[in-house]
Amino acid sequence: MPSNKNRFTTTIKKDTGHKEDPLTFIIPVAGMGHRMKSYGPKCLLSANSKESILDKSIHNIHRAYPDAEIIVVVGFEADKVIRILPDNIRIVENQSYNSTNVVESLRLAINNTVSNRAVIVYGDLIFNLATISGIADNGSSVVVDSKNRFKNEEVGVTVVEDHVTSFAYGLETKWSHIVYMAGKEFSCFKSLCTDRRRNKMYPFELFNTMISKGCSFRAIEPKGMTVREIDSLKDL
């Protein structure tokens, strides 16, 4: 049986010696991935000959931000995921993963960190170091794709003067399922996540609500970035 390392009860301590809040990365992997359910958690599929998708994500995050806190939100076949995680990863379990969407996983993660800034990285992404390096340097931002790295049916964004003005289906430039939030944007997202009336909404719908409330997201497409979403086995 796997140990309960960092599961539910990890002590949260804030290092008051830092001039700014520690950076938290949240990786939600609780969902079943209905098209690949029989293969187990999608995040455990091989990204390459040595690493799973989740291993590669954690490795790149640690390389880019060695001091960052990483929270992995588990759900479907949670013990299989927990078994492979390093001891320095914090684990939160979404026990209602079968009846909720990713917003509930994000709510649980945000409620389990003292940080006031976080990067959300979806757990079915394979990305390189360039994709996330420097993401936290210049305020709240969304990683976008204008080079057809994502499928046409994915959520897109409108961009005006380097800022995202809306999220919607059918747009040519895509949201790459990576977002950094700090300050006003983090506080607003946390408030919306904890509003039970919104727990059936998707993150991009909450982002639209945030923009309508005056929040701001820079659109960034890092030089040298490679990223792809694993939706089915043919994507590997």
Topology record:
Layout lengths: L23 E5 L24 H12 L4 E6 L3 H7 L5 E4 L8 H9 L6 E5 L3 E3 L1 H4 L8 E5 L10 E5 L2 E6 L5 E9 H11 L9 H10 L5 E3 L6 E3 L7
Parallel strand pairs: 1-2, 1-4, 2-3, 6-10
Antiparallel strand pairs: 4-9, 5-11, 6-9, 7-8
Care to describe what's here?
The chain is of the alpha/beta class. It has one domain: Spore Coat Polysaccharide Biosynthesis Protein SpsA, Chain A. The protein has six helices and eleven strands. The strands form three sheets. A seven-stranded mixed sheet has the order 3-2-1-4-9-6-10, with helices on both faces. β7 (156-160) and β8 (163-168) form a beta hairpin. The longest helix has 12 residues, at 53-64. The chain is globular, with a radius of gyration of 17 Å. The model is unreliable at 8-18 (pLDDT under 50).
List keywords for this structure.
236 residues, alpha/beta, seven-stranded mixed sheet, 11 strands, two-stranded antiparallel ribbon, Spore Coat Polysaccharide Biosynthesis Protein SpsA, Chain A
If you compute it from the alpha carbons, what radius of gyration comes out, rounded to the nearest whole angstrom? 17 Å
Task: State mean pLDDT (0 to 100 scale).
Answer: 88
Structural class: alpha/beta
pLDDT < 50 stretches: 8-18
Q: Enumerate how many helices there are, as a single number.
A: 6
Tally of separate domains: 1
Oligomer category: single chain
Name of the CATH homologous superfamily:
Spore Coat Polysaccharide Biosynthesis Protein SpsA, Chain A
For the record, give the distance between the C-alpha atoms at the N and C termini, rounded to a whole number: 30 Å
Remind me, CATH topology? Spore Coat Polysaccharide Biosynthesis Protein SpsA, Chain A
Q: What's the shape?
A: globular
Q: Helicity, in percent? A: 10-25%
In the CATH hierarchy, the architecture is: Alpha-Beta Complex
Neighbour order of strands in the largest sheet: 3-2-1-4-9-6-10
Number-wise, the strands total 11
Let me know the largest β-sheet.
Answer: 7 strands, mixed
> What's the CATH C level?
Alpha Beta
State which percent range the strand residues make up: 15-25%
- Secondary-structure element order, N to C: EHEHEHEEHEEEEHHEE
